[in-house]
Design a protein that fits this description.
By secondary structure, this protein is of the alpha/beta class. Helix content is about 35%, strand content about 15%. It is built from 17 helices and 14 strands. The strands form four sheets. The protein has a seven-stranded mixed β-sheet, with helices on both faces.
Length: about 450
């Protein structure tokens, strides 16, 4: 079965999480992804514990394998002129370049977007950065938490406290960091994948769609003519700060309309309503998401407290809140799960990760899969493909995670280098083969 992105070729120059997850999504749906790594340690995440016993040294990190199945790897020294020529030859044969350097790094090396499009006008060039290719923080360093703090998302996450923090700004409750990297993944990787596919669609156009005949009482649909593509690539400028800010679409929309400044713990969907909060129970925690009146009524009736129905939208600290807290403390998590099965009120347990990964939901949705990784007895368990297509589903196991530089010679031969030329490039240090071959694989740690 053909995968939906088969035929799309991606050069991934990124490291770590945002770019790695973006290209993972593309690879799982059939894109041919080639990791372009340096001739030193390569992608830093290769050397991060924990390790998979028996796997090749540069491909034994569980974190690396979680992001890099279905990819190949080549090592190129971009500070070497011959190495830069190798990169440009690869650019000429690919559809997409993905990178996560600070703005201007590849330009200074002489292989930025303008140079790339000279050899391939159709190249789609996606740059994932913290703050974008323009603006006052263009060159600033940062990580996920920094981006979330600057766009207001971190400041709105947590419980309400005494008003008037440092400098009189915000609420006094402690900001709460998310266990998932919202800016890296939601603001960076997902936005990059969407931007890449949008740019490819514009470049390639769309085929003609024939008229649909009338059926089942519906009128006939018109013929939709083919939309010719431009044939040209473009820059996809992904700022993780921009992407994270877009997660506040509703919150920002309300503020921009009425000027009311939201504060931590005061948003309806972030702590200000007793009907929409986590609650401690006798042996753990559960979530109550009874936002619609019918769900709140079902909860109140189920616990025999119909007197609480009109108090749905009161907040923490109220008498009603104290009563709901006390109600939840009377039952165990399992008992509340049984209650939720009998009363449709949007009530679910808060699971630890081990519980979540072995849950019936995760099993049924095939969200834990096994990757056949060379040397790893029994394979490597990791998360599955999160988007389910009915006709052309993604595949997590087309290729194992690549060893560092595993495919250098193979890729060079594919783009026309002779065996002698490959040997010359290796000897000059413009490229490098596998980490085991050059003895570097066991020396790098982070």
């Amino acid at each position: 079965m053909s995968l939906p992105l088969a035929g799309i070729r991606v050069l991934d120059l990124s490291r770590l999480l945002p770019g790695g997850f973006c290209s993972l999504l593309l690879a799982d749906f059939g894109a041919e992804v080639l990791k372009v790594e340096d001739t030193g340690m390569g992608d830093y995440i290769r050397w991060s514990p924990p390790y998979i016993e028996g796997a090749e040294d540069s491909a034994k990190s569980a974190l690396f394998l979680a992001l890099n199945r279905n990819k190949r790897s080549i090592r190129i020294d971009l500070k070497n002129e011959a190495g830069r020529e190798v990169l440009l030859r690869l650019v000429a044969e690919h559809d997409v370049v993905l990178e996560s350097f600070r703005p201007g790094v590849l330009d200074r090396l002489g292989v930025g977007y303008e140079r790339m499009r000279e050899v391939n006008p159709g190249i789609v060039y996606c740059a994932i950065t913290g703050y974008g290719q323009s603006g006052p923080k263009r060159d600033a360093s940062g990580h996920d938490m920094n981006y979330l703090g600057l766009v207001g998302l971190l400041g709105l996450t947590g419980e309400r406290g005494e008003r008037g923090g440092v400098g009189g700004h915000g609420a006094g409750g402690h900001p709460i960091q998310s266990a998932g990297q919202i800016a890296d993944l939601g603001g960076g990787a997902l936005m990059a994948a969407f931007g890449i596919l949008a740019a490819l669609r514009e470049r390639d156009g769309s085929p003609e769609r024939p008229a649909m005949p009338a059926r089942e009482g519906l009128p006939a649909g018109p013929e939709i003519p083919a939309q010719p593509g431009s044939g040209l690539g473009q820059v996809v400028d992904v700022s993780m700060a921009d992407g994270a800010l877009s997660w506040l679409a509703l919150v920002a929309g309300a503020y921009l309309a009425d000027g009311t400044v939201p504060h931590r713990g005061e948003l309806p969907l972030a702590g200000s309503l007793i009907c929409y909060r986590p609650y401690g129970c006798a042996d753990g925690w559960v979530t109550l998401g009874a936002l619609e009146p019918k769900f709140w009524q079902a909860f109140c009736r189920g616990v025999g407290r119909e007197d609480l129905i009109p108090r749905q939208f009161e907040g923490p600290g109220s008498e009603a809140h104290a009563e709901v807290v006390a109600i939840f403390e009377t039952r165990t998590r399992a008992q509340w799960e049984q209650f939720a099965g009998e009363h449709d009120c949007c009530l679910e347990p808060i699971l630890d990760l081990d519980e979540a990964l072995r849950s019936e939901l995760v099993r049924a949705r095939e969200m834990v899969v096994t990757l056949d990784q060379p040397g790893a007895a029994g394979g490597v368990r990791q998360l599955g493909v999160p988007v389910k297509l009915t006709r052309t589903p993604g595949s997590h196991d087309r290729l194992p995670g690549p060893a560092l530089g595993e495919h250098t010679a193979q890729v060079l031969a594919e783009v026309g280098y002779s065996e002698q030329e490959i040997e010359q490039l290796l000897h000059a240090g413009a490229v490098a083969g596998s980490a085991q071959q050059d003895g570097q694989g066991v020396t790098f740690r982070v």
